[in-house]
Description:
Helix content is 12%, strand content 60%. The protein has 2 helices and 17 strands. The chain has an 8-stranded antiparallel β-barrel. Strands 2, 3, 4, 12, 15 and 16 form a 6-stranded antiparallel beta sheet that branches. The chain starts with a helix and ends with a strand.
Amino acid sequence: MKKTMLALTAAGALASGSAWAQSAGDWVVGAGWLHLAPQDSSKPLTLTAPVRSVMTGSGASVNDSDTLGLSVVYFIDSHWAVEGVLGIPPKFKLDGTGTLGRVGELGEARQWSPTILGKYYFNEGRADFRPFVGLGATYVWYSDIELTPGLQGALGSQLRQRPFSTSTTAKLDSSFAPVLNAGVAYQIDKHWGVSLSVSYIPLKTKAKLTTTTLTGLPIATSEARLKLNPIVTYLSATYRF
């Protein structure tokens, strides 16, 4: 009798575990806090035309940013999955360093970086706690780029122009970048769970600046190279279909 009861109990536990199991065809959607922490460095601001000159000692740093992240995971089988991650484009602020430190904030921009990952989940599909690793790629571009009056004035001084007699606009290069990812997922019940992941993105861009007269006549171009290399933390609540 005891053996029969133990067998029934074990069968019940196995059935309960398999009901929560992640398997081929499962979809998991997530939403939560996305924190981007650039590990940045920069090259000096360089005037490229009409003559080439370097603003010696100048540099820039990028502030951390937070936004709402969204994700969708599709399980190919109980271990392998594909994930797409995006979110409300975060706004980054750029501060001057070195000889540009006195300027303070140089400008700001929004970053768009939809990401796709191939992921491997450890432990069996019915396990509540599952570490994972991932590898993928992102395509990054920027919008809403604005330069502060302080930077506008510094560029005008470099060109020996009268204050407020010029205007400068900027464009940031778009690029693909690899994404390295690791984290853990915890399944609370059949549908709800939580996930925490950390990603590293080796990312660089080049800012191209064009200075014109107030009538729109181009008089100079400049550039600055930035390494952003953000560490991205994503904490989300998840729902499995």
